[in-house]
Design the sequence.
């Protein structure tokens, strides 16, 4: 009987000791296997997508995709400082000393569509005299396309002039330079052989993509020649609306001549600035008398080393149509 009382009493005292477990070991849950579901998680952050929060240090070192710049060719989508400074190189005799500014960079995407509907549309003539051209002045009935002023903007293929006009569509390897010798701004064309030139394009008609039409009776050009060729020739062609501009030798074309009834359409250039008067042929007015562009084209005795320096161009008895 004592044994039956002693044994349960001893077990009770043993369970009440300070270091005894609260639950018998046989009631404990079994340990999870080392192959639980969490053991298969991918710990590589490169394959965990949005679950990974990158640190600033890692983000700053993330390589840049170069194909997203410059239309996928790896080039930058912005102009460098060198691109800007070299955009307006001077002619061969200037050694590139006439560097252009950032403002010289222009969009010539519409070079064959006219200069846009720009104001003012009525003639505004400068009052300055061309000191190196016998103090020439714009006549009261003249409209100056260019008169020795600084260009609004300029590249080798496009020059923005006053009154919404521009020089564009420079052919072949031809280049337009600008000079500021002795404070006298000038347009210079060179770097090509004969039958090359450039175009004087008026602004577009208001609310239209068509070039504005005009008429005039005479052109007065102030220019001179630089180069080794003797008796260098050139001409000024008038483009009529709808006319094919490339057929310069066609009988239907209109070239300014030495007189309204004359057929001599070739003009020379001297070594110093002089006035060259050019008349519109009468047959132009016998047709419809409308123009929408001018083409300056070099003719015989012209080489890539020759240059024409233009100081002023005036259209006399000019009228917008």
Sequence:
């Amino acid at each position: 009987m004592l044994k039956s009382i002693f044994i349960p009493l001893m077990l009770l005292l043993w369970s009440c000791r300070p270091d005894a477990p609260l639950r018998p070991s046989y009631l404990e849950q079994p340990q999870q296997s080392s192959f639980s579901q969490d053991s298969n998680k991918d710990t590589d952050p490169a394959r965990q997508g949005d679950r990974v929060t990158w640190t600033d240090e890692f983000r700053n070192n993330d390589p840049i995709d170069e194909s997203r710049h410059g239309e996928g060719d790896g080039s930058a989508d912005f102009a460098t400082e060198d691109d800007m400074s070299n955009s307006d190189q001077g002619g061969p005799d200037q050694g590139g000393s006439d560097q252009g500014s950032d403002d010289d960079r222009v969009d010539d995407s519409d070079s064959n569509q006219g200069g846009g509907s720009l104001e003012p549309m009525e003639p505004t003539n400068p009052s300055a005299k061309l000191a190196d051209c016998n103090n020439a002045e714009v006549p009261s009935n003249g409209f100056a396309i260019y008169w020795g002023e600084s260009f609004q903007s300029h590249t080798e293929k496009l020059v923005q002039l006053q009154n919404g006009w521009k020089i564009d569509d420079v052919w072949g390897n031809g280049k337009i330079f600008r000079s500021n010798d002795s404070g006298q701004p000038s347009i210079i064309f060179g770097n090509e052989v004969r039958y090359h030139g450039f175009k004087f394009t008026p602004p577009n008609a208001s609310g239209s993509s068509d070039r504005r039409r005009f008429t005039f009776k005479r052109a007065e050009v102030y220019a001179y020649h630089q180069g080794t060729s003797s008796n260098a020739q050139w001409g000024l062609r008038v483009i009529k609306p709808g006319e094919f501009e490339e057929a310069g030798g066609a009988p239907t074309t209109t070239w300014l001549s030495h007189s309204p009834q004359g057929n001599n359409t070739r003009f020379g250039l001297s070594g110093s600035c002089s006035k060259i008067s050019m008349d519109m042929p009468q047959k132009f007015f016998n047709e419809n008398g409308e123009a929408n562009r001018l083409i300056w084209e070099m003719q015989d005795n012209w080489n890539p080393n020759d240059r024409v320096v233009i100081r002023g161009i005036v259209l006399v008895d000019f009228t917008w149509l």
Remarks:
- The first helix runs from residue 2 to 15.
